[in-house]
Automatic annotation (TrEMBL):
The keyword ATP-binding does not apply. Pfam families: NAD_binding_2 (PF03446), RedAm-like_C (PF21761). It comes from Shinella granuli. Residues 3-154 form the 6-phosphogluconate dehydrogenase NADP-binding domain. One of its GO terms (molecular function) is oxidoreductase activity. Transmembrane segments: none annotated. Residues 158-281 form the NADPH-dependent reductive aminase-like C-terminal domain. InterPro entries: 6PGD_dom2, 6PGDH_NADP-bd, HIBADH-related, HIBADH-related_NP60_sf, NAD(P)-bd_dom_sf, RedAm-like_C. This is 3-hydroxyisobutyrate dehydrogenase-like beta-hydroxyacid dehydrogenase. It comes from the Bacteria.
Length: 289
C-alpha cells in the first residue's frame, strides 16, 4: 500500500488524514503545532516532529496548509524528492500554483495541484469532489489512494487548471449565497421569516441555473442579442427597484449595487438589447484593481 505523508492538520488537513486512515491507509503526519499531530496518533497514523522525517518514507506527499505562502515555505525546505509525488491541496490562485512548482525546481518531485470542492465533514465521502491538474501519470498512479478523499477529476496537465476551476466554482457559489443573503435580509426587514422565502427561492434559482449552458454559449460566441427575452434595459429597471426597495426597508444594498452598476454601464454604452451575459464583456474590459 502507498506510503503517505500529510503536511498540515488544520480543519481540512485533519479531515484528509482521517479519511485516508478510515480507508485503511497508514500515514505519517506533521503540523507546525506538533500537539495537533500527536492528537491524531493511532495504529495507522504516526505523528512526526519534522517535515523531513514526515516525508522521508513517503511516496505520496499531501500538502494542505493555511495558504500558499505557508505551502511554499514548506516546499522550499524539501530535500531531493526523487520517486515522490507531491499533491498541493492548499487553496490558492493559479499563479500561486506555478509559484509552488518553482519552489520544487530541481527537487525531482512529480507534482499535482488540487482544488477541494468540499467542507471538512464530508471529506472521504462521495459528496466530496477534488480537482487535480499537473502530472497525469502521477494522478493515474495514485488515483486509487486519492479516491479515498472523495470523487476525483483530472482537469489537465496545466498546474493552474485545478485552482482556476476551484476558484471559478467558488465564485459562482458566493454569487448565489450573496443573492440569497440579500433576499433573506429583505424578508427579515419586512418582518417575515427567511424560512418562508427559502422554498420559493430554491425553486426559482433551480430554474435559473438551467440557463447557464445558454449563457456560456453566448459568452463564448460573443452573441449576446440573439433570442434574448429579458434584455439588460429591462433588467436594469429590476435592479434599480431592488436597490430602492432595499433602502426603503433599511437594508444595505452593498451586495446588489455592483451588479446594478455593471448593467447600467453596459446599457449606457448602447447595449441595452443584450442578455445578462453581456455583463461578462464589461468585466473583461474593466481594469483588474
Amino acid at each position: 500500500m502507498t506510503k503517505i505523508a500529510v503536511l498540515g492538520l488544520g480543519a481540512m488537513g485533519r479531515s484528509i488524514a482521517l479519511a485516508l486512515s478510515r480507508n485503511g491507509h497508514s500515514l505519517t503526519v506533521w503540523n507546525r503545532t506538533h500537539a495537533k499531530a500527536q492528537a491524531l496518533a493511532s495504529d495507522r497514523i504516526v505523528a512526526s516532529p519534522t517535515v523531513a522525517r514526515t516525508i522521508a518514507p513517503a511516496e505520496l506527499v499531501i500538502v494542505c496548509v493555511l495558504d500558499q505562502t505557508a505551502a511554499g515555505q514548506i516546499a522550499g525546505d524539501f530535500p531531493d524528492m526523487s520517486g515522490k509525488v507531491v499533491v498541493n491541496l492548499t487553496n490558492g490562485t493559479p499563479d500561486e500554483a506555478i509559484g509552488f512548482a518553482r519552489r520544487l525546481d530541481r527537487k525531482n518531485a512529480r507534482l499535482l495541484s488540487g482544488g477541494i470542492m468540499a467542507v471538512p465533514p464530508i471529506m472521504g465521502t462521495s459528496d466530496a469532489l477534488i480537482l487535480y491538474s499537473g502530472d497525469q501519470h502521477a494522478y493515474e498512479d495514485h488515483l486509487p489512494t486519492l479516491m479515498a478523499l472523495g470523487s476525483a477529476q483530472f482537469m489537465g496537465d496545466d498546474l493552474r487548471l485545478a485552482p482556476l476551476n476551484d476558484l471559478a466554482l467558488l465564485a459562482g457559489m458566493y454569487g448565489v449565497f450573496s443573492g440569497a443573503a440579500h433576499a433573506f435580509a429583505m424578508f427579515r426587514a419586512s418582518g417575515r421569516p427567511a424560512g418562508e422565502l427559502a422554498p420559493l427561492l430554491k425553486q426559482w434559482l433551480g430554474a435559473m441555473i438551467e440557463t447557464l449552458d445558454e449563457m456560456a454559449a453566448q459568452v463564448d460566441s460573443g452573441d449576446h442579442v440573439t433570442g434574448v427575452v429579458s434584455n439588460l434595459a429591462m433588467q436594469a429597471i429590476a435592479l434599480n427597484n431592488i436597490v430602492a426597495a432595499s433602502r426603503d426597508l433599511g437594508v444595505g444594498p452593498a451586495l446588489m449595487v455592483p451588479m446594478q452598476q455593471l448593467v447600467a454601464a453596459r446599457v449606457d454604452k448602447g447595449h441595452g438589447r443584450e442578455d445578462i451575459s453581456g455583463v461578462v464583456v464589461e468585466l473583461l474590459d474593466a481594469p483588474a484593481v
